[in-house]
Structures are given as C-alpha cells and as structure tokens.
Amino acid sequence: MRGYGEQRKYNASAARRLRDSLIVLATITAMSTAAHAGEISQLEELKNLSIEDLSNIEITSVSKRPEALSEASAAVYVITGDDIRNSGAASLPEALRLAPNLEVARINSQDYTISARGFNSPNAADKLLVLIDGRTVYSPFFHAVNWNQQNVMLADVERIEVISGPGGTLWGANAVNGVINIITKNSADTQGGLVDLKAGNFDQNGSGRWGGKFGTNGTYRAYAMGFGRGDTDLRSTGGNANDGWNGRQVGFRTDWNGQVDTLSFQGDAYENQFDIGGRANGGNILGRWSRRLANGSTFELQSYYDRADEQPNNAVLDNVDTFDIQFQHVIPLAERHEVVWGVGQRVWSDKFTPLSPVATIVPGNQTLALSNVFAQDTIKIFDDLKLTLGTKLEYNTFSGFEPLPSARLAWQVNTRNLLWTSVSRAVETPSRLDRNLVLLPPFFGPSPNFQSEKLIAYETGYRTQFSDQASLSISLYYNEYTDIRTTTLTGGSAPVGLFANSLQGHTVGGEVWGEYKPFSWWRLTPGVSFIRKSLHVKPGGNDVAGIQTAQGIDPGHQLFLRSYWQLGDSFNFYVGLRQVGSLALAHLPAYFEADARVAWQATPELELSLTGQNLVHDHHYEAQNGFSVYNKIPRSVMLGLRRSF
After folding, report:
1. Theoretical Cys-Cys bridge with 557: which of 71, 84, 530, 584, CB 3.0 to 4.6 Å?
2. Rg (Cα) of the chain, in Å, rounded?
3. CA 233 to CA 230: how far, in whole Å?
4. CA-CA distance, 204 to 226, in Å (whole number)?
5. Neighbour tally for 528: CB within 10 Å
6. pTM, rounded to two decimals
7. Residues 261-270: pLDDT tens digits?
8. Nearest residue to 147 via CA among 623, 634, 632
9. Which of 11-15, 380-384, 541-545, 633-637 bottoms out in mean pLDDT, i.e. has the lowest?
10. N-to-C CA span, the chain
11. CATH class label, 4-644
12. CA distances for 617 relative to 201, 216, 227, 595, 634, angstroms
C-alpha cells in the first residue's frame, strides 16, 4: 500500500490531470454545441461486420496501393476503429495490444517496448517502422519510437494495419521486422461533435472534436485532448517510481474531394509534462495531393515537417526537425502488370545538448539525409497466380547506398484460400547513438565504423475463410541476421568500448490468428505467436554488455483470445485474455491477464462504459528498462462517457 503522503500526492496529481482534461473538453463542448447543437454523427454508430466484410477490408500498407486484406501476400493484421473503441484502450500502445503479431510490453507509466518477431527490449526495439497517416515517427537519434510522444485521438482512427515481417522495398529504413501504419479517418467521416471522457485510478483521458464542411467538396475537423497517467511502483523497494505524467494535444485535418483530385492537410501540436521533471513537446504539419489520371493510373505527392523536443528528467535536451517529401505513381500496364514506383527525400536536423559532462554525442549538431527510389511490379502470371518483384535503392548519410529487394508469390487457390511466400532484404541503418555516443573520460565511443544491421527474411503463409462464420491466417518465417549491434571492448592497455557489428544468427517462428462468429452478435478472435532465436557473437568478437542487450528480451510464445458481444442496440461487452511467456533473460515469469469492458448505449448519442485492465492481478511485470529496473504494472479501472452531437 502507498504511504499516506504518497497517496495524497498520487490523488492530487490524478485530480490535476483530470481537471486539465475537463477544462479542455468543456471549452470544445461549449463551442461545438453553440455552433451545431443536436447534430448526430452517423459514423459513431457501431458497425456489425461479417467475417467476409472483415476479410475484404481495403488495406494499403502491403503494396502501397488499395487491395483487399484477403488478397495481401504478407502477414498483416488490421485493428479497426471499432475494435479500439470496444476494447476501451486509453492509449495508442494499449490499442496495439489487439494485434496478435506484435510484442507489446509496458516498462513503466511512460514507456513501452513494441516490436514484431523479436528484439523487444529498450536497447533492441529499433527495427519497427511506425507511420501515422504516412508520417514516420521513429527517432533519428536512436531509431526507436518515443511512445510517450505518439498520441492520437483514438476515436478518429479508422484502422491500424500491422505487418509482421520486413517492408524495406516499399518503406525503407527501419522496416526490418515489421510496419505499423496508423490511418485516421477522412474529415468527411467525422462530421458533427464528439466528447469522449475516461477517468480511473491510473488513467484519465479526455478528448473533444468538431467536424464541419466548407464549400461544395471540403470538410474539416479540429480536436483537443488531454490525459494523465499515474505512478507505478518499483519492485526493488516497493516505493513510488515517480514516473507519472500528463499531456495535452490539439490538431486539425481538412480534406477536399474533387472529380480527379483529392487534397488533405493536417497537423498536430502537443506538450507533455513528467511529474519528476522534464518535458516533451512538438508538432507536425502534413499535406497530401492525389490525382486519378485518364489511363487509370494515380499519383500521390506528400510532404511533412515534424518538430520534436525532448528533455527527459532534466538530463538531456534533444531537438529534432524532420523535413520529408515523397512521390508515388501507380501504373496499370495492359492486363498483366501493375507498377508502383516512387522517389523520396528526408532530412533530419538533430541537436543534442547534454546536461551532464559524462555522456554526450559528438558532434552535438548534425544533419542527416535519407534518399530513396523504388519500383515494384505485380505480375499476373495466371489469373490465380501473382508474382511481385521490387526493390528500393536507399542512400543514407552514415552507411551510403543500401539495396532493398523483395520477391512475393501469391496463389489464389479459390475465392476463399490464399497461399503466399516471399524473400526479402531489409536493413537497420546506423542511428546517431550508434555512431556518435561518447562516455567520458574516454570509456566509450565514438563508433565511426558501425554499419547497417542486415536481414534476409524467408516467409510463407496461408489465409483462408472456412465459411461465412470463420477465417484463419497462418504465417511462418525464418530470419537470417548479420552485423547486429554489440557493445565491444577494444584491446590495448586502456581498453575503450564502442558499438560494433559482431552479432549474427537466425530466428524462426510463426503467427496464427483467426476470426469466428458463431452468432451475428458474438465474435471471437484467437491468436498465438511463437519465436525461437539462435544468435551468437562472431568469431573474434565480443559483447561486454551481454547478448540480451543486442538480441532483445522476448517471450517464447504469446496466446490471445478476444471476445466481442453486441446485444441489441444497447449493450456491448468485450473480454480480452492474454498469456505471455516468461522472459528468461530478464528473470521475469510468464503472466496471464484479462481486460474487460461493458458499454451501455443509453441513447443514440450517449454511451456509458466501464473498463477494467489487468484484472487478474493487482500488478504484474512486463519488461525491464535499460538499467535492469522493474516497475509494477497495476490493475486499472475506468469509467467512460462518450457523447456525440
């Protein structure tokens, strides 16, 4: 139990976060009600998708063009907006737990490690590409994702496409073990107003949005959100970890749809405060222009600017400016070919200011460039057999040119069965941390010879719809890794550590998930994933930090079962069960947990809900931070109110 002083501090912190959220939402509600009182957004009605509907959801992440999920030759899972709503997830990382082909582990109140197919630790989870509406969000400083900076209004998410396996040919650097593509709704689908409030013992969330029209073909929306997260406790002492935090974010999106052209313009700004001190703030702005041409081809031009400033624990200050422009052209050629090609340029300007004389980055300021050109051709060999060949040629400041080829073969056995196989190459290019980290007086670095980490991946899969009530997806893979990062001690009378490419080996594993709908009102989604790793240091090399730092800390298996009930028009129930295998390298046991949500649609405009997360135990452990610190992840309960108008 918390001491009296700690409990008062916790309650005051939670009350302050909830107050800030309510102030933001009250302002949005008052403005929206005055402008359009009584208007109901039809999009907020829950969909009752059949198994066939779920199989035919249109996705774009596998081939960078629209295609049905049932025809995609990759291990891809789609989290729909309704799945997120029904689960009661309070944050983007918690929503990603719904994907059975991801490893999601919470470190503490602020931090998560998220990966696909292994390498899931604070030091190794840098091989996953994450996009929000086409904007990449990994850091050039260490190539992982700062999940405490990536917040979206979950009610505005249309779907999340999760690909396990490499996507370097189309997406480039960092798309090594997987791609997460978060796609928000067109503003035409978010008309009217919405207020969404959640308050509980650990999480407090509040968001408000208003959408309207301009001209004949234009629509817009604006939103504001605020949130707070409570403190966790430490396993070592049982005391408060002082890792609570709160944040606020605002943003907008506009869309214009013409006969041949579509335009989108959107942006966000955020500010996060950490209770122990420190902050993270930033913003982005993105524009996209698409055109349908007379010959059936389409092109898209997208550009964005992103600014991120982070000062965790008042220890360092990192400022990153990102400029990115991408062009893509989809060309159907005759009846047997469909070509996708494009070019892109990204520039990062990173400024690192150490507030400690011990650890620093040399040089402190650096501009990095990432250029690419890619092409991919989907060839219809027969009506039921397609071969997809492609490659990307990428140039980066640190390691130069990197070719990223792939080949995929898909056999549509019949309308309900698909067999596919692929081989591809992907790389994890060096980050600023890999090359430029220095610990004084000289104990470590810099590492100017560190090169890209490399993967050759072999995959095969089977996707079937047994009947109108059941579907199944099976994916198997063998990944061959070379030149993985190690912490190496050099020889000499005064040895110095540096990063080297001394780890190699392979992983083998698989993922299985399905959908079963025994009744129109009941849907079950089971899933399982497993992995086995065999990684070792090259002859003559060494890794003084231990292989577990480089190869990640992964459970050998994960089991999932999620159940959705829709009883009439008034009640919605969700239960999510997960069993995660032990983390032997981190000395953490396996754990079993359950999440649940019940919602009552009191009126077409008003929903009341009760959500419980981690209900089996009062706390459990999911991961350790980079310094072998373990935080207790607590049970949490939230009351929710959702009002559309």
Report:
1. 530
2. 24
3. 10
4. 8
5. 16
6. 0.91
7. 999 999 999 9
8. 623
9. 11-15
10. 42
11. mainly beta
12. 15, 54, 24, 11, 8
